[in-house]
Structures are given as structure tokens and as C-alpha cells.
Amino acid sequence: FHRCCGPEEGMKWKVHPVWFEEKVNRLMKAIQTDPDMPPLIVHYLFSEKDGTPEFELNDGNGRFEAYKRLGITHAPVIFWITEPEEKEAFLAEYGSYL
């Protein structure tokens, strides 16, 4: 999945690069001290363009970046699904992982 918040061009929610770096650095220190963090919240939806699934990180953009920088490849995630069709598609594709 991809972040929707950050200093890079094209972000849905753009934030100042200095603020983002400070936040990510604080989170990296916190994760190293106590890795028990809230879950990331990922919105599962179909692409309007081509009907393929997308995973948009709606909460935890800073934590996700901190995890990446620390080399952490697994974290708790809550999937947010708003449409019944998307729920069925998600369960058909990823239900075996639950």
C-alpha cells in the first residue's frame, strides 16, 4: 500500500518536510523503545481507473515511514472497507490470510 500523507509531490495530504522528518524520527525512537504501536488503518478500494484493488494508508503514515526506515516488515493493520462489493472482493482475494 502507499502513504497518502507526506512531503512528497502528489500526496493527497501534503505536509511540511521538516515537520514530517521530525515526526518520523520521534516515531523511530519510540518504536525502538516500545514496539507496541497502534495499528495502521488501510482503506481497501477498487481503482476507479482500471478496477484493480488499491490500498491507501489513511492512518499511520508516519509510523509506516518509521517502520520502513527501521527495516520492519510486519505491523498490525486494520482494513477499512466501505462498499459491500469491495468487502466481497477483499475476502475472495485475501480471506485466506485472516
Textual characterization of the structure:
- By secondary structure, this protein is an alpha/beta fold.
- The chain is 39% helix and 24% strand.
- A 4-stranded mixed sheet has the order 1-5-4-6. It has a two-stranded parallel sheet with strand order 2-3.
- The longest helix is centred in the first third of the chain and has 17 residues, at 17-33.
- It is flat.
- The mean pLDDT is 90.
Measured as a percent range, the helix fraction is: 25-40%
Percentage of residues in DSSP E strands = 15-25%
What does the largest sheet look like? 4 strands, mixed
pLDDT averaged residue by residue: 90
Radius of gyration: 15 Å
Class by helix and strand content?
Answer: alpha/beta
| Strand and helix order | EEEHEEHEH
Number of helices: 3
How widely separated are the two ends? 18 Å
What assembly state would you assign to the polypeptide chains in this entry?
single chain
Q: Note poorly predicted spans.
A: none
What's the count of strands?
Answer: 6
Secondary structure topology:
Elements: E1 2-3, E2 5-6, E3 13-14, H1 17-33, E4 40-46, E5 53-59, H2 61-70, E6 77-80, H3 84-94
Parallel strand pairs: 1-5, 2-3, 4-6
Antiparallel strand pairs: 4-5
Helix pairs in contact: 1-2
